[in-house]
Amino acid sequence: xVTDKKLGFIxxxxxxxxxxxxxxxxxxxxxxxxxxxxxxxxxxxxxxxxYGVRGCTNAEVARDSDVVVLAVKPQILDQVLRSISPDVxxxxxIISVAAGVPIAAIERRLPPPMRIVRAMPNTPATxxxxxxxxxxxxxxxxxxxxxxxxxxxSVGLTVVLEESQLDAVTGLSGSGPAYLFLIIEALAxxxxxxxxxxxxxxxxxxxxxxxxxxxxIESGQHPGMLKDGVTSPGGTAIAGLHTLEAGGLRNVLxxxxxxxxxxxxxxxxxxxxxx
Length: 275
Description:
alpha/beta; 2 domains; Rossmann fold; ProC C-terminal domain-like fold; elongated
């Protein structure tokens, strides 16, 4: 979907830049449609020079954009919402990528009724391979949902869920890259232990994870079936799998997702209590 809306990004860190860069790369939007603000003026100038977007203040983004993407850290979101509230009209769509901050918290700081979409992207969005879940607020429309999907589809896969499920998404795909980086590091360490160079071990481990994910997605097969396809009787893979099962890998990963989900809910509750 190509949009003709003015798209404003408050916050131009890795995620904010990834999102408007994805829109430009997929030609879903043109540079003149993108408005960007950041805490440091030199950062804004850098992005204007690199992408041809329009550099603004937070207030200008809020006032002049049809869609305002809040791409700031949760810790400063309340301050940002207070500052832009006078410049936000009900005709605008607000999209938040602040992890753990519920739609209800954003609604308390902006003039009601406000159209809000909450999103949970992950860091692979910076290389166009993100996994994002989005949820609609009470007043958001199907057209708003389509606009949000245009933004996040430009950097990877997007799924639509209920807001109550977004904490689970934070625990799974939001925090998931950290789990996988740890697994890749461990695999590479193991390669070094059995005699491979550090460089070769890291390349092989990372490409194995990338290739396995690509095979799973493109084949559409259940991961158990793909696992069985690698595992021959009395072979090397089954010996390694036995060790992983004995070490409780499944249980550890499931507990990690559950713990991260629980922490996301706690952060959301803490944010609401501070308002």
